[in-house]
Amino acid sequence: MKQEGPYIKHIYWLTKDEEENLRQELAGRDIKLKHAKGIVCTPLDRINKITSVAPEVWNDTCNRQGSWYRTSDKNGLYLVISSFELEGYEDKKAATITESDFVPPRLATSKDKKALVSGNPLKKRVPDDWLHPGDMEKRIYLRWARRLGSEVEDYDFLYLSHTANHANFINPRFFIQDGKEIIPYSIDRSAHLCSCCVELFQVLGGDYKKKMVVPCSGATIFARLKPDRYLLVEKA
């Protein structure tokens, strides 16, 4: 049985023209640049070697979550997720993602989460669309949480956890330190999180040299990432 190598993904942000040039360059080497369809996080699956995420994909299945992208400096750019580095695109690289053995010092309590969402940094950054989850979405997230072993029955608990986790990458309260550097980390388990894509792809928290990001429930289902296994995001 073939043994899998280390998990690694290289993250790039390109203009439409740059993405098309890359597509043609790869085609000349008999490498197909796949198109992500419907969901942003599927390219994180180990089996996907290199995939492009067009801006409109952020409006699809995870439209509400995509509001973080649409209100960021990445809006309108193409996201390319590759298992190998792209020569000639070094200045377009945003991050490298690898698996980690990180164990958080502690996770957030409900009180911690309420404190995180009450801060002005979050209020200045949170998109309006994020604030309005639909009824079907609520049922889906509760189902996913149970699928990952959680007994939570209250969507408000999940929504608070989702929002507080993003807030921690805007203005960190849960972090470790490497010398003088702050390394924020996800504040809860996979079952209770949403849209880890925005941290993994540097839409949020891109100012930090390193982040520890646990896959959200969606990413464990659609990208087959390991629940509760932290990923190290290193800024390019």
Write the topology of this structure.
Layout: E1 8-14, H1 16-27, E2 34-35, E3 50-53, H2 67-70, E4 78-82, E5 93-99, H3 110-117, H4 120-125, H5 135-147, H6 155-170, E6 175-178, E7 181-184, H7 197-200, E8 210-213, H8 217-222, E9 231-235
Parallel strand pairs: 2-3
Antiparallel strand pairs: 1-4, 1-5, 3-4, 5-9, 6-7, 8-9
Helix pairs in contact: 3-6
What would you say this structure looks like, in words?
- It contains eight helices and nine strands.
- It has helices at 16-27, 67-70, 110-117, 120-125, 135-147, 155-170, 197-200, 217-222; strands at residues 8-14, 34-35, 50-53, 78-82, 93-99, 175-178, 181-184, 210-213, 231-235.
- It has one domain.
- It is 29% helix and 18% strand.
- The longest helix is centred in the C-terminal third of the chain and has 16 residues, at 155-170.
- It has 236 residues and is of the alpha+beta class.
What is this structure, in a nutshell?
It contains 8 helices and 9 strands. By secondary structure, it is α+β, with helices and mostly antiparallel strands.
Descriptive key words:
single chain; 236 residues; two-stranded antiparallel sheet; 8 helices; 18% strand
* Class from secondary-structure proportions: alpha+beta
**Strand order in space, largest sheet:** 2-3-4-1-5-9-8
Number of helices: 8
Strand content: 15-25%
> Which segments are poorly predicted (pLDDT under 50) over 5 or more consecutive residues?
none
Biggest β-sheet description: 7 strands, mixed
